[in-house]
Records
---
Amino acid sequence: MTSPPRPLAGIRVLELGALIAGPFCAKLLAEFGADVVKLEPPKFGDPLRKWRHVERGTSLWWHVQSRGKRSAAVDLRTEEGQAIARALALRADIVVENFRPGTLEGWNLSYASLAADNPGLVMVRISGYGQSGPYRERPGFGVIGEAVGGMRYVTGTPDRPPSRVGVSIGDTLSALYGVIGALCALEARRTTGRGQVVDVALYEAVFSVMESMLPEFDRFDVVRERTGSILPGIAPTSAYRCADGSFVLIAANGDSIFRRLCAAMGRADLENDPSLAHNDGRAARQQWLDDEIERWTRARSPDDVVHALEAADVPVSKIYTIRDIVDDAQYKAREMIREIEIADGSRLKVPGVVPKLSETPGGFDGGGPALGEHTDDVLLDLGYDAAAIDALRARGVIG
């Protein structure tokens, strides 16, 4: 059976960047069919190749972050390396980069100069603070974006320092906005014939998902604080301890859902209490109500709680570890646990593709490329001959 074409087939992407935000953006484009050429420094490549758990010299993370891409090892600090990047940008639809503002300009790869030769070029620029403003030249990783964007301050419990979410959420959010911006710019190009710059600041990507934090402050001078697992003013929704010491999450803040929760708990007194019929009344007694629910969960195993509340149509779940995820039927049914074969011939589990498209789904084959695996192919496509490639390699311009 022939696979349907992916929706971005025919789109060419040049990835100039490293680590998380820019490469994650390009990875998403690759999953939906874009031809992504990633330029990496010769010898060592993207530092992500050595991050976290490394097997046979390559990070396992690499096989998630760089699947579906072609790797060319090119030194952008050299004039010859910059010429290669310019030639690739001339043919590209999208350039993705996440260097500090001014870096590309210093390498003679500014958007203005690239767009002069390729007016339809879209450039996604992801940085800590964006391409303008008084902080534009400051270095900024995802963790800084999370701090400046307001997320770190409200994450954790009131009696502890601000906590990490547990993943590089600032980088990931900015990458998603980069993809959205790139696709919007491609659509606009259909009308105007011109590309444009997609300017994504890490802190702005974080700030944009902070819900009603700003208007609450503006109208009521409220500063959101760390509240642990509850949602202040929305009840009941929290993590509740079970008999074995583990937790389940229960989200019963809808009025009818709350009544179903009370019935499952055998608490007709709560179910029929008019002061608890709506969220405002429950929110006024939030801590007391959570204590009443936890009194019920503490007497039961997490499985018993989940089974009872699922039967009552109340949103509930154990808090999954990665072991739970790998064994979960829903993940398997939606192909979110995929296996690939990597270069050494072994099989490796990696996450599937999001979102699911009914007619032109995304996909990927294999893991991340070896450093410089496609250098020669990329240069041959640009018109370099074998002798020129050998000369560039001898001078250390390519790897």
---
Amino acid sequence: MELWFTERQTKSLAISMRVRQNLHRERSPYQEIAVLETEQYGKLLVIDDAVMLTTADEFVYHELIAHLPMFTHGNVERAAVIGGGDGGTIRELLRHRSLQEAYLLELDERVVRVCQEYLPEVASGLSDARVRMEFGDGIKRIAEFESYFDLVVVDSTEPVGPGEVLFSREFYDLVRRSLRPGGLMVAQTESPFVNRQLMAQTREIIGGAFPETYVYLGSIPTYPSGLWSFTIGSAGPDPRQADLAAIAKMTADWPLRYYSAQVHSAALSLPPFVQEIYR
């Protein structure tokens, strides 16, 4: 007998993976959490029947959402990750020596604990002394900070249910308020193939809270369409002006598998069909 997991990514699109075994499944106070072992993509984290990550391709997402804004800023000392309970974004942020403090603001503590047990290669950084984990409403918590962070990463789920408010103007105004002068934020902003309207709306919303916005892309096979976008809201730094030579030198000994100085520039070079979304 063959076992398969299928995610209905849109009303007209699905992705299926052959499953070797069910490693864990539970219902937390907020959502259903499962970890499966798949044939093609290794371990798979599923929340409410949606793919969150696989161990085969998570490095693309986490390296892009962490390193491109970190090197854009150049000297991040304090960062916050809203969501991101799997720990992958924190793991990548911690590679930067300038980072002194990283807050993980995650709604559901069970996501963190499940990932620490079943996905330790992703959650490995959460035990670092620089990390402060807080569980509950990340929006209420970020509202308590003023001019504190250099970088805020919105590592959110899709804009449905608890994640819907993370795509609102009110939320990004709070994020802007939490940043120090010259700070910036980055959010995952879905697929240019299947979420064009959402991408346009999100950039407009972020642009209302920040003087400059920048969109960049990465290839993540298990996310809808395989092409994924990220949007930066900046109060100063321009990712196109990052010091590529410094990036290459600093990352030379890092075990990175996707991000590099060349990828930094390439990710910001949007193809015409993506540029059309913002006209």
---
Amino acid sequence: MKIVADCDIPYLAGVFEPYASVCYLKGASIAPADVEEADALIVRTRTHCNEALLGDSKVRFIASATIGSDHIDLEFCRRRGIGVATSIGCNARGVLQWMAASLALFEERFGLSPARTTLGVVGVGHVGRLVRVYALSWGFRVLCSDPPRERAEGLDAGEGFLPLTELVPQVDILTLHTPLTRSGDDATFHLVDRDLLASLKPGAVLVDAARGEIVEPEALAEAVVSGRCRAAIDTWNDEPSIDRRVLARAAVATPHIAGYSAQGKAMGTAMAVQAVATRFGLPLADWFPSDPTLRSHPAAISWEEMKRTIRSRFDIEAETRLLQRHPERFEERRNAYPYRQEYF
């Protein structure tokens, strides 16, 4: 059995070697010749798994150690009988703590304290649910928009769920936590366009730690440059060639590392390993890194305690300055980023 794996997936080296031949490569550099004889791929978002890559291969299974699947042509995989597994939810608490650091900064810089701030959460899945729960506990007024959940669960304004067009004009902070989808009634590609940005309160903050392509890039640049809205961005259009206009003016700008906690990365790798093991009958279906500190231990935390402690755990201002000074190092910083420790 042969596995081709992204060499930047942490904790993976040595796991499959007793059972398979493993080739580790840079994710963006994996080419058709590399996967011709592979049975399985273990990838991140930097590997575009489509017919161009896989058309002449014998790949039967793809495991992504990331939450999304927009880097995988699911229709092609379905036609070819290639199984696909993602690590959805693995980094939710890492993103929560990135969000917490951003909220603390917004209070300090813009006066957006919980008692007088309305937070709009778009997409209330693994990450959005956590953001909602913690933000409510911190005293924010929280409004949500998630049409698939609303239909499935009968949620409405009584539970704080509103249509997006009704939610946006009310919020001081609009935070995106949806997957990237390009078709269907609930497609999120360019969900945030000129019309939506124009309906924000002047000076509201748009937060994107989901996928860059959810936001129409020129519309965002125009809104930020004009001062119509502020921005806190972790996921960008056209990474790593990010928009320098938005970068220069962003309140928060990080190189797609919102979910980069040690615990989240361990879980993502474990979920990918377990998926491959289950598919091929290998004795790793319960595998997890042996280091006990890599297990998440969720806890409640007050707003004041979070503000007092978050900078020592994650200095989001320093990370922003680093990217603003050296945008050309986006990919370098992302791959070499020292994983944060989750603490709530």
---
Amino acid sequence: MLRTHKLGEADRIITLLSRSHGKIRAVAKGVRRTASKFGSRLEPFMVVDAQFYEGRTLDIVTQAESLGSYGSDITGDYSAYTAASVMVETADKITDDDGSLQQYLLLVGALRSLARKEHPVSLTLDSYLLRALSIAGWAPSFGDCAVTGEPGPHTVFVAQLGGVVADRVAPPGSPRLDSRTIALLASLLSGDWADAEAADDRQQSQASGIVAAYTQFHLERSLRSLQHVDRTTA
């Protein structure tokens, strides 16, 4: 479940990312009534097995069974909630109506990890964003120069150029990262959690800033939920 909008007095329009049918927009009738048989299952961050009646403009939800009840665990933790909000907004923007199985599996795995508190929230979010962008074709380089291909290590990161770049091609004023922050970014992209969790707070904060800038550059629009992310307890 990506998002919902109120419709009339008791209905909602829901947007889901499906495993094999892309993004689906449908009307869930009566879900805002307390007697609704599946209202709680059709909330953001939930994973459901749903059936639909094909309508003229929007489909109609006829049945929904929970596959992953992550909503309550995520919404009960503000830092997890804000991170999950960024994830579903990113998934909504980064996938077209045809969808992507890889994006679907990545999002479900990230939400499950948040709900189970498997890793620090901030690292989970940054890893998700880097991987989602990579699946979409915007994999950043944290080793070789993104422009010339010169072997690293390089310490200048330029989002517009695709990652770290050699000093001789770096635009003036580009941010320079320490080697440990670059290693952290590479670990988040590859899923090396032991290495990522060994980074200190300053390195994690610097990496988060880089990930946010890189994400918003490639999405070509701001993520409204990103400004609300709570990293203080992550």
